[in-house]
Fold each of these.
Amino acid sequence: MRSRRSTASSAGRGARPLRGRGRSPGRFTELDAGNLERVVRTNLIGSALCSREAARRMSTQRGGRGGAIVLLSSAVAVRTGAPGTWVHFAATKAAIETLSRGLARELAAEGIRVNVVRPGMILTETRLTQSAEYRARLLAQVPMGRLGDPGEVAAAVLWLLSPAASYVTGTELEVSGGL
């Protein structure tokens, strides 16, 4: 879990593209068990363990001051399921949304809010390695006609962490250009 301060400082001008981890495109039938395990471990288990540790420290029932947890999902988790490319990735992101909803209800009485930011097509290092033709096909699906900037995702996370979102828990905030 990054502190609010480090997240805020990394979201300013010149921020580097968000890095997609644990993903390897391809048909599900060709997916090897090792890749599947890495994606589940990185996305789902990593999010669950970080959330558990944050909750232990923030819980007002354990001497903490309360707080907010924001997990990252993906628009493909609820829109398409990423057929032919990242079905396994989409499945772990959908599981993160279920984790967040359950934790929001479980931890609310302990002063902890839990939400999800659901990015759409964001300018990441992975996106930069894709062919111009593939990116053009993706962009055709986005009503705003552009890729999102990592800073736009960071701003959504920061808002959910802020006092301005003090009554927001158990929700998914989509940052997708209308996808």
Note: Residues 19-175 form a domain with the Rossmann fold fold (CATH 3.40.50.720).
Amino acid sequence: MHPASPIHSLILALALTSGGAQYPASILDAGGKPLGTPNTATALIQDDDFSASNITFENTFGKGSLALAIRVNGDRATFHTCRFLGWQDTVLLLRGRQYFEDCTITGAADFIFGASAALFQRCQIHCVGSGYITAASTPADHAFGFVFASCTITAETGVTTYLGRPWRPYASFAFLNTQMPEAIHAEGWQNWNNPANEAAARYAEWKSSAPAQRPMRACRGRSN
């Protein structure tokens, strides 16, 4: 089942021509150099105070690809009833603060990632493949990273996923009052195969609902 969504007034979609490249980041630019993952975005938001409503941002390169639907560099960006569709690295939030309200975000691996402080309010997070929902790179001196409040996580049949893993040591995310499916691994998050990350990363859950076999984790990692 695909997540329900409101009627969207505009759909932005990008289908890159691979030229034989397995991943979009490997496609050569006009100067003959690989694009790199940040430059695969369907939409690039550079300015502060950007706002969008009822827009679908989609990267259609395909299953298994590192391809961004959106990359946000600006501060105070807001998104209302928008959809962000991709596979890996769907939404890159590089800096500043962002607010997502009643949005849908789909992906499989690290599909919400970056260094921003971002609040996701009443959003649907839909896992189309097994992997990790978030990969935060929160700076050490930032009090908050990604906060999910009153959201719903759903997953395709047979999919399993972690809530996140730390892209950088001080990664921060919190899931508050969020509905979680059986697809979420019992341990909640993964340390990116580096136990040292557990001393610095800040991962928390509060009053979320989950199947009985998956106990909630109050907090793991460094406390402020």
Note: Residues 17-21 have pLDDT under 50 and may be disordered.
Amino acid sequence: MTIEASLRLPQGIGDVDRFIQEFQIGKEAEATSFHTLVGHRHGEIFTKLSDFEPWKGTVRRMLELTETATRKVSVQIAIENHQDFQVAEWVVLVKLMHSPQIGLCPDTSCSLDFLEFPLEAAR
């Protein structure tokens, strides 16, 4: 049997201990994979592109904290596109981390919200 633990990304430096504790709880529950999403549906939150751009920096900082935490507890985590970025944008963000600890879990149904063709997004 495979157990997947779903975690909430660290929201800031003060939230990293909680994030690491969630990994430890998952490991104790014999989770074999870890999954997360950022959670914002940017079309519902941001009304202008200029409001969205600074948030991309926030997500990048969250990923940096995530990378540090995953390395510390020797686990990998997959991040789902969840109506927040197109898959290609996630690929760029994850590659910027230069880390085998962080990967993607593309949800092609979420791609539809961005007018991405699911098959193209998966490629």
Note: The chain is about 50% helix and 15% strand.
Amino acid sequence: MAYFRSRGSTSDANANGASTSCDLLARLIEKKSTDLQPDDGYRGQIAAVIGHDALDRLSSIEQPTMTITGRHDAVIPAENSEILREHIPNFEMELIAAAGHLFFMGQPELTLAALERFLLA
């Protein structure tokens, strides 16, 4: 949690209205540009994601569960968390309106607040 606090607030808005630090985003892009995954590894990862289906087991989760998602997430749409909410008992969903997939980078204070509410409840 100290990581999120150390990031401070950000004020630059992206196309979706999500706030992101330009410097932080530039460093992430630089790191990911040199951290390329081999094609066969990527294909294996996609095959695993497509082949995984645990929907019928979600109702057996007994522990309190929470997802945090960004309203503008183009990678894992917020609707996926709605499906989880329908099937997992004792489930909380935190939807960060002005955020995308990297909600924890674009909205660190809101992310931290959601985590603290959930973990300290």
Note: The radius of gyration is 16 Å.
